[in-house]
Write a structure and sequence with these properties.
Helix content: 55-70%
Oligomer: single chain
Shape: rod-shaped
Strand order of the largest sheet: 1-2-3-5-4
Number of strands: 5
Radius of gyration: 44 Å
Order of helices and strands: HHHHHHHHEHEEHEEH
Strand content: 5-15%
Number of helices: 11
Distance between the termini: 39 Å
Length: about 425
């Protein structure tokens, strides 16, 4: 059962954010003190305004909570809004910085509360309270017995126009704070999602790079094993034969040593092609060794080189035969390389572990739905190594890399079987990729 992904939330405020909030609160406090002093001198509420001392207390109580606005956004918003309504009701001479503080507090609720339902309820309650308070003060002003102030004559009097302006300004003020808070929260979520995707891509890139390095190491190790093991094994057999007949049959010893020389040259040739392939630029298929090398000409790591491989195996003391069944079809270079190496490793194992009198048979079958390579030997089953070595692992990896499978194991009538099967669908995919 798949575990649902946790809901995305914006990041928590950092130490830098909290420091900025403290700076903002102190700055607004200084502005509120100056505004209170100037408003008191200007007598913005006339003779009914409160004393300057209350204005200074209000300035501190209004602005200092903003230092905690990101930690406790809802609480700060309620405190600031209530203080603002009280100050305006009791004619405290400071209104300008108070408007800024209320806007910031409502904006913070929308921008920093992850519980969106709670954020909506807090802001809606503040806005509804503001409009209720505004309607009450408007009714009180309209029903006051005094004739001072704006004229109330006519259906659309200057007093009514002024009241409508107040409603419009407050609607735009609180609506803007609400909208901008939501937009800030959405932008923060998008930024957090982008940062998460960037971090995930970076982790995947590191994993991919590590896997690529590991795969390259495995590929190089497999190539070196196939090349070195085959030729060194042949050289060991030939050198042993030369030593055995050196005194009684110098001509046979000479032929065996000639075989050692030939195997050494072929090993150097294959190693040179391998090194040239590793140095090939990235825009050339590194598995296609037909273009690697210079003086040595094209690579022989092809299926049409299997007869020569079988012949060399026979020359090193393991009688071997080769046969092709079916109509040969084009095979991608990567598959040819892997099948050739599988045959090479299977013959090497047969020569090393088959025992005296062993022989090998290599068969290449082109079927309607797959191509098969089968290598069998008639050596004693008990001579086959019981522990899977690097050779068998490498053959399985090559078969899997070609999109096929490998079957290995003792035969019922004696000897050992290695059969690689590559489906035609895998051949098509390999052809496209190459």
């Amino acid at each position: 059962m798949t575990t649902p992904a946790p809901p995305l939330v914006r990041r928590a405020p950092t130490a830098r954010d909290l420091r900025n909030d403290v700076i903002l609160a102190v700055t607004l406090l200084l502005g509120a003190v100056i505004s209170a002093g100037l408003s008191s001198v200007a007598q913005i509420y006339g003779d009914d305004q409160a004393d300057l001392g209350w204005a200074l207390v209000y300035a501190a109580a209004l602005t200092l909570p903003l230092a905690l606005r990101r930690r406790f956004p809802a609480t700060v918003a309620v405190i600031v809004s209530v203080l603002y309504f009280i100050a305006v009701t009791f004619r405290v001479p400071e209104i300008y910085v108070g408007n800024i503080a209320v806007f910031i507090a409502i904006f913070t609720v929308g921008a920093w509360i992850d519980d969106r339902r709670r954020a909506m309820l807090v802001r809606v309650l503040i806005i509804v309270g503001m409009f209720v308070w505004l309607m009450v003060t408007t009714f009180q002003a309209a029903t006051a017995p005094t004739e001072e102030g704006l004229s109330r004559a006519g259906v659309f009097s200057p007093f009514v126009a002024f009241m409508l302006i107040q409603f419009l300004i407050n609607a735009l003020f609180f609506g803007g704070a609400y909208y901008m808070g939501d937009r800030a929260y959405t932008a923060a979520l998008e930024r957090a999602a982008l940062e998460e995707r960037t971090a995930e891509l970076e982790r995947e890139r590191e994993v991919t790079a590590a896997q690529a390095v590991a795969l390259d190491r495995v590929r190089i190790a497999r190539e070196l094993h196939d090349v070195v093991a085959h030729h060194v094994s042949a050289m060991g057999v030939q050198a042993g034969a030369a030593r055995a007949v050196l005194e009684r049959d110098p001509d046979a010893a000479r032929r065996a040593l000639s075989g050692v020389e030939t195997s050494a040259r072929e090993a150097i040739h294959d190693l040179r092609h391998l090194l040239d392939t590793l140095r090939t630029p990235a825009d050339i298929d590194e598995t296609d060794t037909s273009t690697a090398g210079d003086a040595d000409g094209p690579s022989t790591v092809r299926l049409d080189a299997l007869p020569e491989l079988v012949e060399r195996t026979a020359q090193t003391g393991l009688p071997a035969s080769f046969a092709v069944f079916g109509e040969p079809a084009p095979v991608p270079a990567l598959v040819e390389l892997n099948l050739y190496r599988i045959a090479q490793e299977a013959l090497t194992n047969a020569r090393r572990h088959g025992g005296p009198g062993a022989s090998a048979d290599v068969r290449l079958r082109y079927g309607p739905d797959a191509i098969e390579l089968e290598v069998t030997n008639t050596g004693a089953t008990r001579s086959t190594p019981s522990v899977t070595g690097l050779g068998l692992v490498g053959m399985r990896e090559r078969a899997a890399a070609s999109g096929g499978s490998l079957e290995t194991g003792p035969r019922e009538r004696g000897g050992y079987l290695v059969r690689a099967r590559i489906p035609l669908a895998a051949l098509d995919d390999a052809q496209v990729s190459s």
